[in-house]
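Recall that a protein's primary structure is simply its ordered list of amino acids. Everything else, from secondary elements to tertiary packing, is in principle encoded there. The following example makes that idea concrete.
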Amino acid sequence: MLELDHLLEHFLDLGYPDLDEVGRARFVALLGEQDQDLSDWFMGRRAPEDPDTAGLVRHILAIVSADSGPHSGTFVR
């Protein structure tokens, strides 16, 4: 899913460098999730069952939506 790729790439530029070791490990684990699950989570159709994953998804959305760059509206509800 191209929009999902753009969202995650944008977060890599904006927010990933500020994550601690645990946050970076969670992000890497997030990348292993199914695209449809990621799409549902980032579009707000449902939330991840794991609270840590849900927190990371909210964090990613907050970082990307706060940016006024070219991808800021992509996949953010």
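Residues 71-77 have pLDDT under 50 and may be disordered. The chain has one domain: 2-66.
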